[in-house]
Design brief:
Length: 82
């Protein structure tokens, strides 16, 4: 079982990866919000680590960025060395 600190580390890396992928694709938060069906404010909150995303939110963001959600989580876990 992952400790609370490790879960937080995965969440931080997930937020960083989402932000980097969005920027790499040249997309604004507004475009990602429109594609995901989320508000631009929620996208901002997730990227700035002000909100821990639900599974549904991660799935929506991954879809909006044309990413595999499972791969996204694996990348965050690896970056957090979990």
């Amino acid at each position: 079982m992952l400790s609370y600190q490790k879960l937080q580390a995965v969440g931080r890396h997930l937020a960083r990866i989402l932000r980097e992928e969005r920027k790499k694709q040249g997309l604004s938060m507004y475009v990602v919000a429109e594609r995901s069906g989320l508000s631009a404010q929620m996208v901002s909150y997730v990227e700035r680590e002000m909100r821990a995303p639900t599974v549904e939110t991660v799935l929506r963001l991954a879809h909006a960025l044309d990413l595999d959600a499972a791969d996204l989580i694996r990348r965050a876990q690896k970056a957090a060395s979990v």
